[in-house]
Amino acid sequence: MEIELNSDIMAKLFSRRVGGRSIVTKGPRYNSLRNRRKEIDERTRSLRLKLSEQSGRSSEDDVAKAVLKVLLQAENHKATLNEIRERLPEFLELSDADRSVSDSRPKEQVWEQQLRNIVSHRSVDGNFIKQGYLESPERGILRLTDRGHRFLASDANQ
After folding, report:
1. pTM higher than 0.70, yes or no?
2. Do 12 and 28 share a domain, yes or no?
3. 7 compared with 128, residue with greater pLDDT
4. How many structural domains compose the chain?
C-alpha cells in the first residue's frame, strides 16, 4: 500500500505539542525552520557585535574569552559563575558602559548579564558552550574543554 504524504501530513507526523501548539521536530519543514533560525541567530550576533563596538561595551565574545582565561587558571579548569564573576575583571578591561546597570536585569551590571548569557543562551549558534569551548557539567558551574584550551592557544597566536 503506497501513501502520498504532503507537507501538512508530514508536519503532523513529525511534530509534538508544546504549550497547546504543534512544534515541528523532523522533516523538510523542520530543516527549513532550523536554517531560518540559524540565519536570524547569525544576524542578531552580528548586530550585537556592532552595537557593542559603537557603545564602547565589551561584546559577549569578549566576555566569553575572558571566562576561558579565568578557567584556564582555575583548579581543574572549573569554577562557579560567582567565582568567575569575581575574577573576570582581572582578564577584561571593563568600560563604564560594561559597568552600567543592565536594562533586563537591574541588579546586575551589563558584563555580568553577558556572563550569565553564556549559560542561558547555550543553544544559540556562536555561543561558547554550543561551540564546545565550555561545558556546564552542573548548574552554575562552567568548565574549560580541550577544544576551548586549543581555541585560547590559537587566539593567542593571532
Report:
1. no
2. yes
3. 128
4. 2
How many beta carbons lie within 10 A of that of residue 58, not counting itself?
A: 22
Amino acid present at 127: N
Are 49 and 79 in a shared domain?
no
Parent domain of 133: 56-156
Within a domain: 117: yes
CA distance 107 to 97: 15
Work out the angle between the directed axes of helices 146-156 and 60-73 (0-180°, nearest 10): 110
> Is residue 46 classed exposed, middle or buried when 0-12, 13-18 and 19+ CB atoms within 10 A define those classes?
exposed
Residues 86 and 107 in one domain: yes
Q: Do 46 and 71 belong to one domain?
A: no
> How confident is the model over 52-78, as pLDDT tens digits?
555 678 888 999 999 999 999 999 999
pLDDT at 157: 59
